[in-house]
Specification:
The chain is an alpha/beta fold and 97 residues long. The protein is 30% helix and 16% strand. α2 packs parallel to α3.
Length: 97
């Protein structure tokens, strides 16, 4: 996992959110920061797990340094996504908010 605090490091952030308004608010909040970041959006729990497990078209995607997780998601609920993250040896140390 990469350190968000590293100088000149671009933070990889995964936002797992199905509400378009909340996605827009989050993007706006990050635009007002002064650190470098890449914000990837997953619209449901299934897509989030594919990104995190690097499946299919996400096989070359970097792991996030930070996960912003909505608990109320379609397909796979956010609580189940959180459980899968925290029981996976490769993912469990990624901070989840």
């Amino acid at each position: 996992m990469n350190s968000i605090n590293a100088k000149n490091k671009t933070a990889e952030i995964l936002l797992i959110e199905d509400n378009v308004g909340d996605v827009l608010l989050t993007k706006e909040a990050f635009r007002s920061t002064q650190f470098k970041y890449n914000l990837r959006i997953a619209k449901d729990g299934d897509e989030a797990l594919k990104i995190l497990n690097r499946q299919g078209k996400f096989s070359e995607s970097p792991l996030p340094d930070l996960i912003l997780l909505d608990l109320s998601l379609p397909k796979i609920d956010g609580r189940e996504v959180l459980e899968k993250i925290k029981t996976n040896a490769k993912l469990k140390d990624i901070p989840v908010i």
